[in-house]
Amino acid sequence: MDFDFSYVDVAFKNGRVITVNEKDDICEAVGVKNNKIVFVGSNADLEKIIDEKTKVYDLGGRTLMPGMIDTHIHPFLLALLGTEPDSPMISLFGDRIKSIADIKAEIDKALAIKKPGEWISMWGYEVPNLKENRDPSLEELDEFAPENPVQCMEGSGHKCMFNSKALAQIGIFSAEDASKYPEGDVGVKDGKLTGMLYGVTCFLLWSKVDYPEEALEKAVCKVGDEMISKGLTSIHDMGALDRPSYHSMQKLARERKFKPRVYMALHSIFGKPFSKEDNAHYLALGLRPGLGDNYFKIGSNKFMIDGGSSGPSCYTREPYDHDPTMLREKAWDREEVADYIKFINDAEGQATAHAIGDGAVEYMVEGFEKAFATNPRPDLRHRIEHCTLTDQDLIDRMAKMNICPSVNAGIVAKNGGNYDGILGVMGGMERFYGKRNDYFGALKSMIDAGMKPSLQSDAPSGPYGFECLDGAINRYDRVRNIQCNQKQCVSVLEGIRIATLYGAYGSYEENIKGSIEVGKLADMIVCDRDLLSMDKFDMYKVQVDLTMLDGEVVFVRDEAKDSFK
Question: What pLDDT does residue 214 have?
């Protein structure tokens, strides 16, 4: 592409530029004019188009790479979370919550500032991380907060414990009320409510908790700034609060208050009837992927088949290795999935679904095959969200249809020790999925099959930025210091391509972003080191020194400001 320019507005020199172009070229320098990359090459050639008006950044050997694209993230859920007792949702994520007593301590802090009858909403505990190795009980939550409704959600987001006050608030008073909801979604034991809600009912009844819109919008903009500081210049918003979040995110993105570019999935978290109704409505209106501008675009038509990987509650072909009696959540039947994919495919939407277990993934693959039998549309780049447990057969079949999975390999860095117990750790026992861990977040096998998978965090359920990339490259549980199954590790360059260009491909935007090439949008990040010479095991430690979005510097790390004067 030819550009008419006499100088560049911004110049980056003396760097290790990871271009992610077709040849994976590593260059020294990049030039930007307005919001586009207009030069990629050597320091010497860059000097020819630098004048007194050019802002020059000396990288000093640091890496310049495309901004990362997180293809499955929940910004409004991140906005709800905080560690303060007045947060809309009190975060229980991380290693500070090690027992049910720690959960009680968080409730006590909230009770100190809340009036009787006010909700206490919490999210993020992990059963294997608790000393008791179990969920908190309804009776315990009743004892901890007898006058307040309490909602305490497990880290995957697919099961949630409510106390009696909370159950009453959402209209569940007895075991008989469980019949109003899908089988198994409302916990009942010995004819009594357990307080636990599962699956889509968990999400549906969660919506009964009120969160102020103005405060939420302010919080989500702060989350966007945090994403920018972690190297995310684009995200695929996979929904949280149903229709209101569409309106808020569109407004905030176009006003540039929410800084990362947004590809917005059309999705209802409230279950099958709502997904069908909403997506039929959107498709009838003519809303298709790509509608919008470079800041906010309509994305895929999403639905949700199964549960989570960390509970676990996902729908696997075979029972879990550690406990064959555990419920494997499945909200859609095989034929329903196939029929729905055909509907979206024929309407020229981009079909995708939350499918974690190999049973749910199989439903998706079969559904695409049936739809393609009468109307092959590999150009639609249909997706599978998470696509966590697979096998080589499923991968080969996806590759033939140009399916573009969005894979949460980063969750290994947070919970990998729950999934497998290799190298004699954790008593040498196989954990949730046993030998199926050979294909857990199978990025390497997908790449080898010619696919273009992308990288996602599913935040707040997993880490984003370089901590997520670390999960794909090293597959090391940073919480428990456990080396997990390494068969699906990717190289540094492969990981960066998955986190950038392939993310752009999944939203039909590979021609405008995702790599550092002349003519593309100037969405780039400067790392605090040379990613190609460092010990790759330290990937999780990488800091972003500078983020450029649309040709403008939107973030500089405090510790790096002196080097970018």
Answer: 80
